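Appendix B, Record 12. Input sequence as logged:
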Amino acid sequence: MSATISLMFAGVGGQGSLLIAELTSLAAVSAGYDTKQTEVHGVSQRGGSVETHVRFGDKVHSPIVTPGEAHAVIGLEKLEALRFAHYVNVKDGTIVVNDYELIPGSVANAEKIYPHETIDFLKSKGLRVIALPASRIARELGDGRMANVVLLGTLSTLLPIPQEIWDKTLKLRIPARFLQGNLKAFQAGREMMN
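Logged structural output:
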């Protein structure tokens, strides 16, 4: 691989964007890539925005994704996908977004001003958008907190990392009591791309 893969994970505190970014970094390292990761927490413990940059390739000099260069932006909810959409490479990048709305409780009239049409708006700008009901799928699998891993499964189909490395990474990083559910969530995300 000659090009560096640049990824932006965007979510709200508590959604697990840091975990799936870490899983991606670990899988990339396991696949033999030079890998860099950094994150900006903001007020994540109060439900604020969390962004994580992951870059991997033959040789990576910086963990920071420059706007317009991301191969994928992964939005754990619609507003965060919109907030970080400018990071995606318009020509060949993808926005993978959970078709889920987390209305900010701290914003007056948030329900009225929330950008409910985010997915249509992003598509109207000519961006490749993969929207999936990750939260619903995770709830159906028994734990809504696994929506992040459903999104990771979908993302994994876009990256040059073999499935066996993803499986090994999940088994090494996810605590045993949560492993089977997360493996199912990951596979459900992969199957969304078939």
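Helices lie at 17-30, 78-83, 110-113, 118-124, 134-140, 147-156, 163-173, 176-191.
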